[in-house]
Amino acid sequence: MGSENDDGAAPGGAPTAPAEQRSATTLRVNAEHHTLDLDHRRVLLDVLREDLDLTGAKKGCDHGQCGACTVLVDGRRVNSCLQLAVALDGCEVTTVEGLLGEGEALHPLQRAFLDRDAFQCGYCTPGQICSAVGVIAEAAAGHPSHVTAPGAPSGRPVPLDRDEIRERLSGNLCRCGAYPRIVDAVEDVEGAAT
């Protein structure tokens, strides 16, 4: 339990925060409960990577601008580099590692990314996949985007055409430029679900 090393330092060698700057925080990560004693300043990304050894979410920009750290919190996509971990006490967190199905079967989006060769270096891929899971859920729940037709009925599922997918994934950057194949992969999964 906790995030201290044996020498009393937090991960990365930083000094441990005094007790009044720490809180017991319970997170359900990929269907497993974790109770951690956390410094109030630590972000979810660092807790996932350093304390729970879940390295799928990547530290790209560390400013919420690239999307490489995207995970799902209570089913909604978030940049984990911006989320204070203690503020998520009691929340359900799903990382790319938690998307695996029964018997470690790939999630349909993971399979589609492989089938469509929708990555090059792969650094952004876990964030792209988690974001795409969120995009599909948001559209199914009827949440409009900037490119959704103004006359679209409120609260009804939004069809995910290529423009919708591109707009909704615009917060996830791919420095290799695999965008067309990423859109293809999301279209494949969305098309199979409808």
TrEMBL record:
Domain 2Fe-2S ferredoxin-type residues, every copy: 23-99
**InterPro entries tied to this protein:** 2Fe-2S-bd (IPR002888), 2Fe-2S-bd_dom_sf (IPR036884), 2Fe-2S_ferredoxin-like_sf (IPR036010), 2Fe-2S_ferredoxin-type (IPR001041), 2Fe2S_fd_BS (IPR006058), Aldehyde_Oxdr_Iron-Sulfur (IPR052914), Beta-grasp_dom_sf (IPR012675)
Q: Where is this region: Disordered?
A: 1-23
What GO molecular function annotations does the UniProt record carry, in alphabetical order?
Answer: 2 iron, 2 sulfur cluster binding; metal ion binding; oxidoreductase activity, acting on the aldehyde or oxo group of donors
Which key words are in the record?
2Fe-2S, Iron, Iron-sulfur, Metal-binding, Oxidoreductase
Q: In which pathway does it act?
A: Alkaloid degradation; nicotine degradation
Q: What PANTHER family would the database entry show?
A: OXIDOREDUCTASE WITH IRON-SULFUR SUBUNIT, OXIDOREDUCTASE, IRON-SULPHUR BINDING SUBUNIT-RELATED-RELATED
What is the protein's name according to its record? Oxidoreductase
